[in-house]
Write a structure and sequence with these properties.
334 residues, alpha/beta, Quinone Oxidoreductase, Chain A, domain 1, Rossmann fold, 2 domains, seven-stranded mixed beta sheet, six-stranded parallel beta sheet, 10 helices, 27% helix, 25% strand
Length: 334
């Protein structure tokens, strides 16, 4: 069995292949032949050393593969089943709680940069029947984060307005889910080429935020002064002021990313005048994932994949992510 391990204190040059023996599943566990994973900012934060982890950690939170062995007491899965990992294996359902948000693969415990993993069966769901392994592996973190923002926390309905920022995995999934349910979507980017691709995916209105630095005002103009019901906020402190400007009275800003930093100012007066809310989103539960999978199958949603790298080129995949040239998800074929 081959895996990629990370040596402390982190860095892309600290990712190295190792040979390991597969572990037989114990009670309540399954062994999975991993076929694909995908890159998230969380994974980059781990491998680059932004988020400290144990020395020798096997990274990657996302995984799709085939069950090759089942432990005693496992009834939900059988050998040959196609499965998808859960970002929070201990968050089965209900509201988030501290004890549910521990055990993240590739961070708190070893992840999916390996040919084979042995983990608790509750840390997996079935894989969408309409997707291949690479496409399915994009759903665990980015897809479920977008799903929870739109469908669990905000309760959008057809005709509502959604603003997505950029062309990363969460933003593209949010665009796809929003269009599936009949929402109006405003997409922002600094690249006209990427905006054209976002339009081809169904974005109704496009804003180049370099040409329109006060893009919150532009979003208000596009929505006839109403504002948007949901902002999928992936930028963080550098973009929150414009998100507050863009959001409608009673609307929501789903705080998902911190690409512009970890702290900054929030225009609180405008926020409370609008009776709007900022809601932190960290992926979702296993129950949320099962609901998302049903929607992916019903709508035949096809994730947007930028590129795929073999496992041994994991560092190169992260360098491509670091360049911010990608559109959609970067995958790893295991």
């Amino acid at each position: 069995m081959q895996a990629i391990k990370l040596s402390n204190p982190g860095g892309l040059d600290k990712l190295a292949p190792v040979a390991l023996e597969p572990v037989a599943p114990g009670p309540g566990q399954i062994q999975v032949d991993v076929k694909a994973s995908s890159l998230n900012f969380h994974d980059y934060a781990v491998v680059s050393g932004i988020l400290p982890t144990a020395d020798g950690r096997i990274p990657m939170s996302d995984g799709a593969g085939i069950v090759t062995a089942v432990g005693e007491g496992v009834t939900e899965f059988a050998c040959g089943d196609k499965v998808l990992s859960c970002f929070f294996p201990n968050w089965q359902e209900g509201a988030p709680a501290l004890e549910k948000l521990v055990g993240v693969p590739g961070d708190h415990v070893d992840g999916f940069a390996a040919n084979t993993v042995t983990m608790a069966a509750g840390g997996f769901t079935r894989m969408p029947a309409n997707l291949n392994f690479e496409s399915a592996a994009t759903l665990t973190c980015a897809g479920l984060t977008a799903w929870r923002a739109l469908m669990v926390e905000t309760h959008l309905k057809p005709g509502d307005w959604v603003l997505v920022q950029g062309s990363g995995g969460v933003s593209v999934f949010a665009l796809q889910f929003a269009r599936m349910m009949g929402c109006n979507v405003i997409a922002t980017s600094s690249s006209d080429e990427k905006l054209e691709r976002l339009g081809a995916l169904g974005a109704n209105h496009l804003i180049n935020y370099r040409a329109e630095p006060k893009w919150g005002d532009k979003a208000l103009e596009i929505s006839n002064g109403r504002g948007v019901d949901l902002v999928v906020e992936v930028g963080g402190p550098g973009t929150v002021p414009q998100s507050v400007r863009a959001v409608a009275i009673g609307g929501c800003i789903s705080m998902i990313g911190v690409l512009t930093g970890f702290a900054g100012e929030v225009p609180t007066t405008e926020l409370f005048q609008k009776n709007a809310s900022i809601k932190g989103i960290t992926v979702g539960s296993r129950r949320h994932q099962l609901d998302m999978i049903a929607a992916v199958e019903a709508g035949n949603l096809q994730p947007v994949i930028d590129s795929t790298y073999p496992l041994e080129q994991l560092a190169e995949a992260f360098r491509h992510q670091e360049s911010q040239r990608h559109f959609g998800k970067i995958c790893v074929s295991v």
